[in-house]
Amino acid sequence: MLNMRSSSDLTTRARIRNAALELFGIHGAGQVSIRAIADAAGVSPALVVHHFESKEGLRRACDAYVTGLIRGEEDDDPLQYPAELAALLRDSVPVRRYLARAFLDGSADAAAIFDGFVEVTQTWLEEGRHDGTVRPTDDPRARAALYVAWQLAPLVFDTHLARVLGLNDPYEPDSTLRIMRAGLHMLTHGVFADGHALAAWTTAQAEEDSA
Amino acid sequence: MLNMRSSSDLTTRARIRNAALELFGIHGAGQVSIRAIADAAGVSPALVVHHFESKEGLRRACDAYVTGLIRGEEDDDPLQYPAELAALLRDSVPVRRYLARAFLDGSADAAAIFDGFVEVTQTWLEEGRHDGTVRPTDDPRARAALYVAWQLAPLVFDTHLARVLGLNDPYEPDSTLRIMRAGLHMLTHGVFADGHALAAWTTAQAEEDSA
DNA sequence: CAGCATGCTAAACGATTGTTCAGCCTGCTT
DNA sequence: AAGCAGGCTGAACAATCGTTTAGCATGCTG
């Protein structure tokens, strides 16, 4: 039944999907042809269609694969454990890039993933607030949403962050660690020492309202 | 010399560029054909090439246009004034989308823009530190870089943020304002009440080092 | 007035695209 | 042994792609 004619231990179908995931993530789905994917996977273009019906089907399969990775193996799981999730996004560069593009392209799966992140984050922050480890806020929803967007920002801007930090490889651990440390520092001690920024924004807002 | 045969007050060349900017921003350059741009601008496909030499040239022109908007009219300006810049990114949806994609696609102009943002932000934060309005940090570079990435995050995730906040239109002012307020709150008062998050990360880091 | 550059179009070019088709090979089943 | 299902390929399909060409119209310049 199983025809393992490749040297890899992966199914041919999986190899095609992985190749597509990587190329889609790097160049965007529109810039990648079925032939390029077939070449990268070492198969014929016809086989790609044979396994995934169409290019759209292949893109959906990539979406489903990434969604599965993030949701975890069990279907009833809303989300992976945060630690495993962080490790996943840290280690797999193709998944990072694909996800970043999916968020921008507005795919339904990416939207569901984002919503899941926000839900988990909001309850987590709420729990921390009860414990006293997280500061209260008058807009928990907006805070959770923005917190998620901020956590995902390095996923989109990793190239630029690494370049600004003077690192050649955007994916060497040092870059990620420095960024994480700086982020935790900002979210723990804050950036603005007093309420001047908030006040300035409030007054600017009032002026705009009156205008 | 000037042949204004269109009802608009824009040059035909500018209309083509604007159409390209919008379509590129929405779908990505690879998904948009010259014919689609020509249709949107109300001209023939050949005219697009006539004005911009090639599709790549059109993409470069869009890059240059956005760069010009951000840098300001004068060439010696490193960057627009923050207020005008914020207004620009707030009001022009096509520019937002185009920029977001440019950051992800890793265009050279987008990289230069990001670097400029970081430079301005870092000196601005440094000044604030001297004034006492900004808290000190042991990694000013990483903080400035991440600050920029966080400020740009809504540009990429605006659709998702608006959806999570229960708003239909991602670009109605309410969405932006709520997000800005939440962000300022997080950067002023912090999110974590004590050093537990930083400490947890430090110990996890130590474990990983020893492993 | 002629001459010429410029804005612009219609038509067509070859290349590449996603997709289909006919058929080969392999391994399992009966 | 016969037959069949499935992985897989090469060749070809029509459509669309970016680009080129020839030519029309306009308006400036000599």
UniProtKB/TrEMBL annotation, chains A, B:
<feature type="domain" description="HTH tetR-type">
    <location>
        <begin position="10"/>
        <end position="70"/>
    </location>
</feature>
<dbReference type="InterPro" id="IPR001647">
    <property type="entry name" value="HTH_TetR"/>
</dbReference>
<dbReference type="InterPro" id="IPR009057">
    <property type="entry name" value="Homeodomain-like_sf"/>
</dbReference>
<dbReference type="InterPro" id="IPR041484">
    <property type="entry name" value="TetR_C_25"/>
</dbReference>
<feature type="DNA-binding region" description="H-T-H motif">
    <location>
        <begin position="33"/>
        <end position="52"/>
    </location>
</feature>
<dbReference type="InterPro" id="IPR050109">
    <property type="entry name" value="HTH-type_TetR-like_transc_reg"/>
</dbReference>
<dbReference type="GO" id="GO:0000976">
    <property type="term" value="F:transcription cis-regulatory region binding"/>
</dbReference>
<keyword id="KW-0238">DNA-binding</keyword>
<dbReference type="GO" id="GO:0003700">
    <property type="term" value="F:DNA-binding transcription factor activity"/>
</dbReference>
<protein>
    <submittedName>
        <fullName>TetR family transcriptional regulator</fullName>
    </submittedName>
</protein>
<dbReference type="Pfam" id="PF00440">
    <property type="entry name" value="TetR_N"/>
</dbReference>
<dbReference type="Pfam" id="PF17933">
    <property type="entry name" value="TetR_C_25"/>
</dbReference>
